[in-house]
Protein 1
Amino acid sequence: MAELFKNIYNPAFFDRFTQCVKEVFPSFDGEAFLNEIYSDDWENKELKQRMRHITLVLKDHLTNNLKTNVDILLNLIPVLKQNDFRSDNLEFIFLPDFVEIYGIDHHDIAIDAFEEITKFVSCEFAVRPFIINSPKKMMQQMTTWSRHKHPMVRRLSSEGYRPRLPWAMALPDLKKNPAPILPILERLKSDSSESVRRSVANNLNDISKDNPDIVIQLAKKWKGESKEVDWVVKHACRTLLKQGIPEVMLLFGFGKINNIKIEKFKISTPIVAVGGNLEFSFVLHNRNRKNSKLRLEYGLYYQKANGTLSKKVFKISEKEYPGGSATLITRKQPFKIITTRKLHVGLHQVSLIINGIELDKKDFHLIEK
């Protein structure tokens, strides 16, 4: 069985971490810190709960002065790097969380800290309460950060501004009106850093869920500027493509399917046990004389607790199919238990989708293992 992600906080981690803290803050009592970390309910805490618990306990073992504590954290980062702690891991998300919790009423200290900490561990979660509390001031700050020489600071100006950042509080005002974000995304769409460009695409994908027309118009404007910007545009439109919006389909060359036919659509596993796989197949006929660019997907209609079905779209392929061809396509869809989706037994459905148009649909049933 795979190790639970929350167990990144383990004795080996804390042993190394406390030694690093002592290097920059010699009076730090590592033993007392660990005794408080391993509270009676530690094992029951999930990842974010453990992260917040570490934040609160750490404060108990530092000083009563915010600026002093922030300086300790900033001085700690190079020591962590020297001790082979990787900056691409999630463990140290409690560093920006510390600044968020204790610096929310000390804007300038917190902002200066975020600018440095985000170079080691991203601060996109921690800046969001500041955006909600001080939208105009943070708009200016995000604009300044978008011009920063360090790519992770530039990335923060986009990632922290995402209206629907997963696992984070939403930004309701920006969901309604994303206009303040757009100049930053315009500036960063051709950034030299791939991680920054990816953040731009993810931000636009967030915007597309509430303001699709804005993203469609930007996509039309940006498409063709460069290979890198074209990737941003395509990735930004992934939700719109899954929704099958005709205007977006045409933008990426997915046209009419009058001469595209589906035959022999078959579900090989009409009854699927939890933990097993749905298996299905079909034959795709391209009856055009020329090659046809097709986006093939399938929709899975999951049973919900209230008995209704909820659709999720999965991509099969996106390529040209030769004129006059017949292609057998088979797929497996696992029904493993995962934390992001609760499975409910009963009727489910699977459909076939070509260039955003949903075609045939068939039933199958999920049963207990």
Note: The chain is about 45% helix and 20% strand.
Protein 2
Amino acid sequence: MKKRLDPGLIMLLVMIGFGTLPLFVRRIALSSPELALCRAVIAAALLGLYLLATGQRIPFRAIRREAPLVILSGALMGVNWILLFQAYRYTTVSAATLSYYFAPVLVTAACPVIFHERLTKKQILCFVMSTVGLLLISDLTGLGGGSRDGLGLLFGFGAAVLYATVILLNKFIKNVEGIHRTFLQFLAAIAILVPYVAASGGLHLGVLDAAGWASLLTVGAIHTGVAYCLYFSALRHLTGQRTAILSYADPLVACLLSVTVLGEAMSPRQVLGGALILGFTLWNEL
């Protein structure tokens, strides 16, 4: 009898993989828009092959009403990648990751306005304390002074805003399966990124050395294509609470690698800020 891998283990491995993404991004000598475009193209090609190999067809007639939302969310996802990659280049991986992880807090704050959901006292407390955590990560300086770290944190927060918007848009998409939705979102990201990259100087793949090519293929194929396939296959078998807990492997691994591998320092204030964001966001999910 064929034994299937535990979905929780698959999700944990995916999140650990997501946490290693910044290490590879740092090795790719492309601009953030170029990197975002290459990531989308490689991932879309891999997902397209996966859909063909498994005989899955996208029911375009059934999803035509929700297609504009899928396209919009995909376009925003592409811009979100640009801002996240910029954050990695301007500030430490830990600061960029933790500011980006403010997205779930923004979703919680937006739901009462958009979906008329009532915020509980616990949710309000989690939002306030996570916001305090974000301010502590910025060391309360540099955000308005134009410093590299300040710009990096603004890029990370901007990416968080766009990612939160993508999450909210996806709540309105009811009739498009996860894998089909992701494939179409990748195509939409490509459609928005191609003219942007062309207008800003085009692709410069010739600047990549062997390590750069290996890192680019890893980011596109493994961190995006394979990871998304595994993510959606595991997600169907996990409760929301278990998924939320396992997702914390992503920022924790990223912060750990930032300090141990890249040698990037975190001040005690930033450590406290990261703990507030992750701790109160997790408490809110539970």
Note: The two ends are 36 Å apart (CA to CA).
